[in-house]
Specification:
single chain, about 70 residues, mainly alpha, about 0% strand
Length: about 70
């Protein structure tokens, strides 16, 4: 696997994770009071997907020599 292959794979993974996050967030009902534990789990998984997508983007930037600052 070349550097470009790795960068493209990370980009595809980030896109998939963001799509999954959107799906999880859209299928969760609007928060009620008190919030249903299943909905809370869905929203938490959506946040984890977004965080992981950000990690993929950070890895792409690192591989491209982009400083995090």
């Amino acid at each position: 696997m070349t550097l470009n292959d790795t960068i493209h794979a990370l980009g595809d993974t980030a896109a998939d994770l963001l799509s999954m996050a959107r799906t999880l967030e859209e299928t969760a009902l609007p928060p009620a009071d008190p919030i249903d534990p299943t909905e809370a789990d869905q929203l938490a998984w959506g946040s984890e997907c977004r965080y992981s997508a950000g990690a993929c983007i950070a890895a792409i930037n690192h591989l491209n020599g982009v400083s995090p600052e």
